[in-house]
């Protein structure tokens, strides 16, 4: 039996598997290798097992990556495929994000039952979302709406919607497209009123620093514009300390040698918000993101982060 050239680690949700399959297809095409050259290893994470409370309470983003990163460091897997949005800004020693696949649609999608749009929902309607950013943005648009925590994978959330537990929910357009489920979307949110989470829509690959064989295999997969946008968005998040209790949005667009970034922080009720826009050389992506983070942090003042963290 041929042993695999590369073992790919991933979570087991349908979206995670779709992303791992996309990464594998790109590796096969880049190197002219058959599917058998790549083994896919499904790893269950704490984030998958904790279903009874919001993740921001259970310990935040690292919950989806811890067990996978242990497998990377133990050499049980060679690369890990993730949603960039779920990645903490600080990675464990010895690991790095070494490739970003071309970004999908970054917008949030509304999936409504009572009405196709958030604006069209009846007074006091209930919308399900466990994302602090989406909750705050919805409340800013419609203070009368009650937003309830809504966990589980895409399929679970859509089932709860179908059962009538809520009048609508929100999901990333990118995930729905990758699952071939974009037809459930009833409205696509404009970027200016509903800016995405840093990293939304971008698949990243994590690997061991200094593993030259793996680095050579990943090199052709890295998409320059996505990698630069992500460097900026992740630096913005890091400059804000990545506080899981503060709703944060941020989106960078690369156009040739230029990069434009817009960032926003909100109070959980959406009534206080501070934004920043910055433009500069794409090659300075990380420092632009960091300075945008510092700007918005200074605008908001220290008390902004204390109130609800
Ligand atoms: N936190 C869960 C998560 N992580 C990435 C995506 C969607 C895919 C993406 O943003 O790339 C989702 C689900 C969602 O927000 O709808």
Automatic annotation (TrEMBL):
It catalyses: 4 porphobilinogen + H2O = hydroxymethylbilane + 4 NH4(+). Pathway: Porphyrin-containing compound metabolism; protoporphyrin-IX biosynthesis; coproporphyrinogen-III from 5-aminolevulinate: step 2/4. Residues 6-215 form the Porphobilinogen deaminase N-terminal domain. Its cofactor is dipyrromethane. Its EC number is 2.5.1.61. GO terms for molecular function: hydroxymethylbilane synthase activity. SUPFAM superfamilies: Periplasmic binding protein-like II, Porphobilinogen deaminase (hydroxymethylbilane synthase), C-terminal domain. Pfam families: Porphobil_deam, Porphobil_deamC. The modification S-(dipyrrolylmethanemethyl)cysteine is found at residue 244. GO terms for biological process: protoporphyrinogen IX biosynthetic process. Binds 1 dipyrromethane group covalently. InterPro entries: HemC, Porphobilin_deaminase_cofac_BS, Porphobilin_deaminase_N, Porphobilinogen_deaminase_C, Porphobilinogen_deaminase_C_sf. It comes from the Bacteria. Gene3D superfamilies: Periplasmic binding protein-like II, Porphobilinogen deaminase, C-terminal domain. The keyword Magnesium does not apply. PROSITE patterns: PORPHOBILINOGEN_DEAM. Keywords: Porphyrin biosynthesis, Transferase. HAMAP family: Porphobil_deam. The porphobilinogen subunits are added to the dipyrromethane group. Tetrapolymerization of the monopyrrole PBG into the hydroxymethylbilane pre-uroporphyrinogen in several discrete steps. Belongs to the HMBS family. This is Porphobilinogen deaminase.
């Amino acid at each position: 039996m041929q042993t695999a050239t590369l073992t790919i680690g991933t979570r087991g949700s349908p979206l995670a598997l779709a992303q791992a399959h996309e990464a594998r297809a790109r590796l096969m095409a880049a190197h002219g290798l058959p599917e058998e050259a790549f083994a896919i290893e499904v790893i269950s994470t704490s984030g998958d097992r904790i279903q009874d409370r919001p993740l921001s309470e259970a310990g935040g983003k690292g919950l989806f990556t811890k067990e996978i990163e242990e497998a990377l460091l133990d050499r049980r897997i060679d690369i890990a495929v993730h949603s960039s949005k779920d990645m903490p800004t600080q990675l464990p020693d010895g690991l790095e994000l070494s490739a970003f696949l071309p970004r999908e649609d970054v917008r949030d999608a509304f999936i409504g039952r009572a009405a196709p749009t958030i604006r069209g929902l009846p007074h006091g309607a209930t919308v399900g979302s466990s994302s602090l950013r989406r909750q705050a943005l919805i409340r800013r648009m419609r203070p009368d709406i009650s937003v309830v925590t809504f966990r589980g994978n895409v399929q679970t959330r859509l089932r709860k919607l179908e059962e009538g537990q809520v009048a609508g929910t929100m999901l990333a357009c990118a995930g729905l497209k990758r699952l071939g489920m974009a037809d459930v979307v009833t409205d696509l949110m404009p970027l200016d009123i509903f800016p995405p989470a840093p990293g939304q829509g971008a698949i990243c690959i994590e690997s061991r620093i200094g593993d030259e064989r793996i680095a050579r295999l990943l090199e052709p997969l890295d998409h320059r514009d996505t990698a630069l946008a992500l460097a900026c968005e992740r630096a913005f998040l890091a400059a804000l300390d990545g506080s899981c209790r503060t709703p944060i949005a941020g989106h960078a667009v690369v156009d040739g040698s230029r990069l434009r970034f817009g960032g926003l922080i909100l109070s959980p009720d959406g009534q206080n918000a501070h934004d920043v826009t910055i433009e500069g050389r794409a090659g300075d992506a990380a420092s632009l993101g960091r300075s945008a983070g510092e700007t918005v942090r200074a605008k908001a003042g220290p008390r902004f982060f204390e109130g609800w963290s």
